[in-house]
Amino acid sequence: MDYFVPLQFDNRPVKLPIQVTGYKFNFLWPLKEDANILSRLVHNICLSVSVLCYIGTILGESTFISENISNIPAVAECLCTSFMGVQYIIRIFVLLRRQRPLRKLLQNFYRDIYFTYADDAALCKEINTVIRFMKMFTQFYYVPMMLILILYVYDVASIGLASPHKPFIYRMSFRWYDAQAPQQFIITAIYSGWLTISTVTLWTAEDYTLCLVLCHASFRYKKLRLDLQQLLEMARADLKSGETRCTNRNLHTAFRRRLCEIFQRQQLLNGFVAEAKAHFTYQIFYVMFFGVLLLCVVSFQFQNAPITVDSSKYISWLISQTAQFLLIGYFGQMLMDETTELRNSFYCCRWEDLLVHGDPHSNKLLLSDVKFAIMNSQEPIVLDGMKFFPLTYSTVSVALRSAVSYFMFLNTMNGEN
């Protein structure tokens, strides 16, 4: 298909990591603007089939819940996958609506924000260390998927296709066709199994993209802070390397020119982060909202189920869901911390060293520029989920506590029954 290929600032194509290819696997990666009609048609057909797999599985789960409403442990297990299915249908339609903004965001990110060794070798090395940690966490997302699929294949193989009581990969019930007949069962297993693969790959792709953008944007702010620390030295170096005489007035001018350059870079960076904030706000919302519910019901199911090999899928899912909260919270907090420190860096850029050498007019212009830069850096930048969930450690802490509270509530209800 004619998929969009992001380019770096030197027009080299970007090699996408395996996590990001989850968009393509789900037919949600943007196509090129000039993609041909055949590519668009095939892309839309594949995406429609994928959505139908979600709908069919959710309908089967809804029927199961209506038939077993009094069985809280069974309903809780079914709700786990129902929440996931509903969440990912929302994700799919949000991503469909934002194909152009996503393509533009990625274009701007890899061209202007993405750090390379040419920008700063030391910071790039530090970024790569953080990215390795992020890759390890996001690759662990695949573990629950593999366990669910392997255990399901083993269960079906143990019983055999001839059995009238073959298990489904999720808790499902079908009134509109005989899902236990061999051919219908295979079709049901394929489309419900596809949901497992689709869900995890899309989950991984979105989280990796969010964390990658936040990480590089945060280090761009850090680069601004480091340049502000060296601002006076850079102004002096400009005068020594140029033809302008090294006088107090010229030093003021060189310092202000460098200060304005950093401020302009900050404004461009702020514009990109505002664009990222508008794109990721939906993702952050449903990660926080549905994540709390999933932690609650999966914990409840794990507690009430006997300890068997099947328990491993609940354990790995709980670890992955908790890791997701901690991961996106870490990078959200990183961005907030860097933008908070930027205000102090403008104030501490050694502008006061120039006042004793400058005339009143030059000093007034310098103080005006510094004051303006500080005033425009007063508010830290915080991504949020539709203005309900700021992406910080404190929000993650509240979400985890809420999941525990709902878990205790489910336990109380189950005990009364």
TrEMBL record:
It comes from the Eukaryota. GO terms for molecular function: odorant binding; olfactory receptor activity. The chain crosses the membrane at residues 41-60, 72-96, 140-163, 284-302, 314-332. It is found in: Cell membrane. GO terms for cellular component: plasma membrane. Coiled coil: none annotated. It holds the Pfam family 7tm_6. GO terms for biological process: signal transduction. Keywords: Cell membrane, Membrane, Olfaction, Receptor, Sensory transduction, Transducer, Transmembrane, Transmembrane helix. It is a multi-pass membrane protein. The keyword Cell membrane applies. PANTHER family: ODORANT RECEPTOR, ODORANT RECEPTOR 19A-RELATED. Belongs to the insect chemoreceptor superfamily. Heteromeric odorant receptor channel (TC 1.A.69) family. This is Odorant receptor. The gene is OR35a.
